[in-house]
Amino acid sequence: MGRQVAKEIGATYYETSVVTMWGVHHVFESAIRTALITRRQTRFWSSHLKGVQRPQLQPPYLPEKADPPNVSVPSSSYKENLKGLLDSGMCADVEFLVDGQTIKAHRAILCAAAPTFAELFSLKEVKISSSFGPPEKLVFQDASVFGNPGSLPEVLWLWIPITASGSVKHTTLPFKLSGNIPLEACTEELEEAARNLQLVSLVDYVANIVNNTEYMNTEVHSRMVREMTSCAKKLVNSQMFSDIVFQIEGRIVMAHKAFLVAQCEMMEAMFMTGHFKESGVQVVEFKDTSCDAFLKVLEYLYTGQCPSLCVDDIIDVMALANFFCLTRLVALCEQLIIKELQVAMATNEMAVAEDIIGYLLEAQIHNATQLEAWCIHFIATHYNAICRQCPKHIKNLDSLTLKSIEKKRWPPPWYILEADWFEKATRELDNEKAAEKLRKSSKHIRHKRKCSCL
């Protein structure tokens, strides 16, 4: 509309932006050119005005290309979840009787946290010396067990003949699960109790606090996390202290409710509230899922870390993660998929165009919103090329997705139209200049011939 009005009144059309200041220099430059050309008409003898050109065409404004969206992975709450489970006492299967007080805990988690508990719970003898009293030999069968001898009861009561202050009793287990204890609790008494229980990490941690070498606890904490992760991974699909069984694709998968309930709110509701049928059965059957993918999800729940995934398994894992409302695992899968695509795009961006459309559909199904946004951004910034390469796949996208892509297209559709007009107008202007130059040349030749005849 503006360009049409400018053409009718014989003016030159320009666009400017107050926000970005784009086009302002075009306006002032053209205004100066127009003023000089007007002066040249009245002062035609001024030689310095002969080289002034007419106002130039303004190239269309191209907005900056938006950066691809980043994948934000929520921080891990693995340690906090285990600590919360210990505090709540939910689904506890072992109770420590320490100096007349009961501390509820979970055998599987304790075995992953410290080898001492693994030995204690595996029907083997373990000696624990104590400076608070005579050395005692603790035997699993001699503990106060409710159930048949040699069996694994639902709840095990274990008496530990070590006397210590209340702070020591309630600090040891939380440290093994969270890796942090209050500074005021780091006493020589706690260090001695940890040494008696053969908790090497806690001994080193407290010793560093007592000796004013707290900076060394970073390595202690890292070592403890590595050890617990390694031990917890070995418990995946292990019969040791297993209290729930899953049947998937005809295969049996052993698991431990403590890890599942601590790390997954959906499984907590499934097993602990009594509102789901799974809370009253020992074998839970899952259909329409991959057993390998389920084992990967279990590994994440047991370790709090993203398992090693191949491209073929990652969609199934992401689907299960969405089913169990594990938003962090979904984000980790999204991040891994995008990294794989970026590696493949390093040599040829369009080589993965069809794969990206496929991932977009999967992301929409499994609520992977960050992967969906990344795929839409890629399609929107390579729209014309993808339409030429994968026309059928683009047409199969739903209307809402197509509207989102159209809204985020780069270059935007209006820029493409403006660029076409600019290219066409530039050609016409070049043709006019060439025709004008040809007329002047022909006129000069005719004038020269007349002079020759005279």
Secondary-structure topology with pairs:
Blueprint: H1 2-8, H2 24-42, H3 78-88, E1 94-98, E2 101-105, H4 107-113, H5 115-121, E3 126-128, E4 136-138, E5 156-159, H6 166-178, H7 188-196, H8 200-210, H9 217-234, E6 244-248, E7 251-255, H10 257-263, H11 265-272, E8 283-286, H12 291-303, H13 311-323, H14 327-345, H15 353-365, H16 369-381, H17 383-389, H18 391-395, H19 399-407, H20 413-453
Parallel strand pairs: 1-5, 6-8
Antiparallel strand pairs: 1-2, 3-4, 6-7
Helix pairs in contact: 3-6, 3-10, 4-5, 4-9, 6-7, 7-8, 8-9, 10-11, 12-13, 13-14, 15-16, 16-19
Short description:
The chain is mainly alpha-helical and 454 residues long. The chain has helices spanning 2-8, 24-42, 78-88, 107-113, 115-121, 166-178, 188-196, 200-210, 217-234, 257-263, 265-272, 291-303, 311-323, 327-345, 353-365, 369-381, 383-389, 391-395, 399-407, 413-453, and strands at residues 94-98, 101-105, 126-128, 136-138, 156-159, 244-248, 251-255, 283-286.
Describe the structure.
- The protein is mainly α.
- It contains 20 helices and eight strands.
- It has a three-stranded mixed sheet. It has a three-stranded mixed sheet with strand order 7-6-8. A two-stranded antiparallel sheet has the order 3-4.
- A hairpin with a 2-residue loop joins strand 6 and strand 7.
- It is elongated and about 120 Å long.
- The chain starts with a helix and ends with a helix.
- InterPro entries: BTB/POZ_dom, SKP1/BTB/POZ_sf.
- This is Rho- BTB domain-containing protein 1.
- Pfam families: BTB (PF00651).
